[in-house]
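Much of the work behind modern protein science is quiet bookkeeping, done one molecule at a time. Below is the pair of lines this work produces for a single protein:

***
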Amino acid sequence: GLTYLGKNEMSILFPIASRLMKLDLLYAFLDTAAHCFLLQRCPNLEILETRNVVGDRGLEVLGQYCKRLKRLRIERGADDQEMEDEEGAVTHRGLIDLAKGCLELEYMAVYVSDITNEALEIIGTYLKNLSDFRLVLLDREERITDLPLDNGVRA
């Protein structure tokens, strides 16, 4: 992976970004905006590993620019609020954008802050190749938008 990659070093990837097929950003020091800036330059990306700081905006960018994505792993980011970008939360909104844009996804493991039946139904409808789906609901949220998730799980 790109250990300790920060915004200032990110430009070294730009000349080869369009040829990247795998990107490991688990230990990179990138906020949501930097993730978006980099990911929109990676149209051939098939495998991405990152933290939930990628946020809903990052998933929207993936859905728009990374149509060949097959494997996505989004790990839990820092628990300290100072360490985590304010926007750096993955919710049902980001998953919906991702599912509608990355139709080739086969594997998805994601830590989310919020989820809805609608998002799960859209994932089931759009991601026909998805054979391994792992969803972890973070427990620090005060309330979850849509419970129970029975209808979404059935999809």
About this structure: The chain has one domain: 10-154.
